Amino acid sequence: MENTLHAAKQTGFLPMPDTARPAPQQCVVPVAPACFLLQASAGASIDALSYSIHQIAKTYHAFGAANITFIISDAKALNVAGFFTPAHQRVLVGELPIELHYMFATEQGVRHSNGSSRTLSYWAEYFSKQGAH
Asked: Which residue has the higher pLDDT, 30 or 19?
């Protein structure tokens, strides 16, 4: 985590101001180099979360990363907000040549998809329903 914070400071990333909602820093938790746990609850601001992910993508791209992986255990809030739509995924990376990968984790197993995949929104919806049981 220190490396992530150090890299963010090197590129001029400044965290967004705190709000009454869960802070993006609490929603995006580093677990390994270029791998994050994405913990978005119903109260999380998708805009603030998207901003954080975009800043992470810019930072990691600056240090040579070709992709970043996010582990998602509860896709429901993100899916409802349209986070997994192709248009939103393009906004997250902008013009950067970096791929976002997602691992949907439930008790039934894990499914991998990337942000440019046409099946991403399908898997997000599927795992959102799995979590609702």
From this structure: 30
Tokens 């963010």 identify what position?
8
User: What distance, in Å, lies between the first and last C-alpha atoms of the chain?
Assistant: 33
List all residues 6 or more positions away from 90 whose beta carbon is below 8 Å from its beta carbon. Answer: none
How many residues would you count in the chain? 133
pLDDT at 9: 45
Query: What would the two tokens of residue 90 be?
Result: 């393009």
Q: Where are the alpha helices (DSSP H) in the chain?
A: 2-10, 24-27, 46-62, 76-80, 86-93, 120-132
Q: What value does the mean pLDDT take over residues 82-110?
A: 86
Tell me the residue type at 39: Q
Q: Amino acid identity of 83?
A: F
- Arithmetic mean of pLDDT, 92-99: 90
Percent of the chain with pLDDT over 90: 20
